[in-house]
Amino acid sequence: MEDRTKQNEQHGKCLEKGAEKTLIAIIICLGILLFASLICNVLVYLYFQQQKERRKEYYEDLDEEERRLTPKKLWKSIQENEVDVVLHPDTAHHQLSLNDDASQVRFIGSTQGPDRWYCVTGSNWFMKGSHYWEVEVGEKASWALGLATERINESRVIPENPENEFWIIRLRGGKKFEAVSSTVSALHGKPKKVGIYKTTKELSFYDAETRTFIHTFYIKYPGVLYPVFSPGSRDKGPLIIKKKKEKSNMD
């Protein structure tokens, strides 16, 4: 009987030692895993920091035009929101003339004097959703494009210094390229074809020939907005609204 008791005690001690060894092994394994995880996290952090530095160096090596170049996939997704915009003859200032299919507008008054921003709006109106359209401005010396609230139809003229009811870009006197809302900001370049992209809260402009980003307005206005077009008053060349069937996506 005593022998059996001693055997049980020895067996119990063996189990305890085995459990201790197992516990120690588990702790060691957890420590190794924790250390390996820490090393992996450090390596991943260092990798992404290196990639960030490389991207920064790459970006700094680009010129201004390359920095503003819209990636092809993003450009394609923007153009997928393309809509046909038709000018509304009843909203045109009397100093403007529209062609038969309401896709072109030109100034018909005197080209002498300061820039004047007689305008016409599109028949389309926007509130929510995404919409894209293009306008060919060519070599015109002055023009203005963008969005305005419905009050534009009262005056049919874009004010020289508009308040919070206009979001436009314009070319003045063939030289000054500007973004105009409640403030005026100088812009770079003079596109010949302008891509206009409206989302629910933003209005962005692009050089549609080169995919180059021009400017973005952030719009908080909750009501109806109309696309607005002014051919300026420095020449009698037309603004031409491109129709969907006339456009081809850039490769």
TrEMBL record:
| Pfam families the record matches | SPRY (PF00622)
Task: Quote the SMART domains the UniProt record gives.
Answer: SPRY
Q: Which UniProt keywords apply?
A: Membrane, Transmembrane, Transmembrane helix
Domain annotation B30.2/SPRY: ranges: 65-248
Specify the domain of life of the species encoding this protein: Eukaryota
Q: Name the PANTHER family on file.
A: E3 UBIQUITIN-PROTEIN LIGASE TRIM (PTHR24103)
What is the name listed in the Swiss-Prot or TrEMBL entry for this protein? NF7O factor
Which organism was this protein described from? Answer: Polypterus senegalus (Senegal bichir)
